[in-house]
Request: fold
Amino acid sequence: MRRCRNTPLAIVIAPILICASVVLAQDFGYEGRYGPEHWGEDYARCSGKHQSPINLDKVNAVEKRFPKLDFYNFNVVPKAFQMSNNGHTVLVKMSFDEDTMPTVRGGPLAEKTPLGYQFEQFHFHWGENDTIGSEDLIDNRAYPAELHVVLRNLEYPDFVSALDKDHGIAVMAFFFQISNNSTGGYEGFTNLLSQIDRKGKTVNMTNPLPLGQYISKSLESYYSYTGSLTTPPCSEEVTWIDFTVPIDITEKQLSAFRLLTANDDHLKNNFRPIQPLNDRTLYKNYIDTPIHNMGSVPFVNAENAAGNCRWRPLSLAVLLPSFVLVALLRTSVFSGF
Reply:
């Protein structure tokens, strides 16, 4: 039998190619050669026509009466809470039991799937001072920081398979405003930021709070549009829900974000400039009650849902080795969230 002499070389080259792909996937920044104006050179989708963020223009927004947004398990304490500095943002991942995963249904998401969207992760964008920092703007006004809660359409078994699919991903965006007191759990959260001061550092919160403690308490007023991820590869067909009632954060707490570093420089101004709306429609949720009279939306657990229908995530029984490799390569791209 003839021996294939190229096999050892292939074994050597394969890991090199994998490592090169990972490095390239993380090779973006917010200024200079790797800034947003150059993203389209390496990631073609970043030059698309339906990109995010945008300016949320009240005058041109179309009012629409969306179904009620329902939040399930946003008051469940996670089993684990991991914060990491990936050189682009503070990335938070939370783990839950299968039947207590936070999910969102209704609102603009009702048109996409009846199954709802499941929580994947949340992360932040901020500026070097209080006049800049948010990615989306409201009437050309920027906020000092913005929170993105990333969700996956439950029609897909995992995050990677949901990418580039029609409405496979949704992002709930929340603005921050400077206040004397902070919303929910940000005191304990920002106290841990000094432990991830440099790129690559990770810390686990020992006494984590539910996801609902990190978002706005008023969830009726929002804009919605179809956009993209705001970091490479800028995949489109993402459903955006931008809530107008800000999250309160103190100046000291926000300063803790600004002290983080990436590549021996301060991690600051990690926001993408606004993109043209082009042929898209921006919707504004129609509400009957004036904003100043609105109360908070109660969170519910899955077991309390109407009809006692308990959602359980889809499972992926078998992954072929080639699919695993593709997933690893594509997942590396999203370390830049």
